[in-house]
Amino acid sequence: MLSPDLIHTWFSAMMRNSMLASMTGRYAPFDQQGIDALVATAGSQGIDVSKNQAEYVLQGFEELAPHTDVLPALDALAEGGVRCAALSNSSTRVLNLQIGNAGIGDYFERLISVEEVGLFKPAPQVYLHAAAELGVDIGSMWMVAAHDWDVTGAIRAGARGALVDREGIFRQGLGEQPEIVGHDMCDVADQLFDRLV
Fold first, then answer.
1. Residue 55: helix, strand or coil by DSSP?
2. For residue 106, what are the contacts with CB-CB under 8 A and spacing of at least 6?
3. Surface-to-core class of residue 120, CB atoms within 10 Å of its CB (0-12 exposed, 13-18 middle, 19+ buried)
4. How confident is the model at residue 7 (pLDDT cuts 50, 70, 90)?
5. Cis link prior to 122 (omega < 30° from 0)?
6. DSSP secondary structure letters along 128-184
7. How far apart are CA 163 and CA 114, in angstroms?
8. What are the φ/ψ torsions at residue 161 (nearest 5 degrees)?
9. Rg of the chain over CA atoms, in angstroms?
10. What digits encode the pLDDT tens for the residues 56-113?
11. Rounded to a whole number, what is the largest CA-CA distance in the chain?
């Protein structure tokens, strides 16, 4: 299959496909974007991957365990009375499987897929839709994510941003800066509490 250094190439191709879909009004679910990107990325390296093989690989993303810092952070946020929702580029079906299989569904009052809007993050309509669904002003909503483009998209839509910078490589020079940058979810949760009191 793909070498580890090509995983980033595949993910970038998947993001490119989804952003192109948003910009041209041709929405197709994120898992389909991933399948198409995997077949194309493999093909660019002379590796023949069938659609069925790519689907099998993508199914693995439905069963990923959360990072070890996620449960303690979600516990802390719940105990602190912070409302949490998930906002994902994944389809509703995949999002429900991901959250359910990770065992963290009880922490979220709402699981929101971009499928409800027909556009992918970082389109501003997605973040505005999430705020409306939660009944909050966009300016009081925090986007916590491990992708700087996702946080930047939320900030540009009017939300506040917190970046989980697990690898310590955040160097965003062009976009708006997140108010919070933490090395893991617990760090981000602690900083959030400082701003919510």
1. helix
2. none
3. buried
4. confident
5. yes
6. HHHHHHHT--GGGPEEEES-HHHHHHHHHHT-EEEEE-TTS-----SSPPPSEEESS
7. 20
8. -125, 140
9. 17
10. 888 888 888 999 999 999 999 999 999 999 999 999 999 999 999 999 999 999 999 9
11. 55
- 114 CB-near residues (< 8 Å, 6+ apart): 30, 87, 88, 89, 120, 121, 123, 126
Distances (CA, A) of 141 to 27, 74, 157: 26, 16, 11
Phi-psi region of 144 (alpha: psi -120 to 50; beta: other; left: phi over 0): beta
For residue 34, the number of C-alpha atoms closer than 13 Å in the C-beta half-sphere is 21
User: In this structure, are residues 70 and 146 in contact, taking their beta carbons and an 8 Å threshold?
Assistant: no
Beta bridge partners of 85: 110
Whole-model pTM above 0.70? yes
Residues 123-152 have pLDDT tens digits of 999 999 999 999 999 999 999 999 999 999
Contact 123, 141 (CB under 8 A): no
Chain centroid, CA 12 distance in Å: 14
Residue 195 has which token pair? 């701003």
- Residue 92, token pair as written in the block: 């509703």
Secondary structure (3-state) at 20: helix
Q: Are 131 and 112 in contact (CB under 8 A)?
A: no
Q: How far apart are CA 99 and CA 21, in angstroms?
A: 25
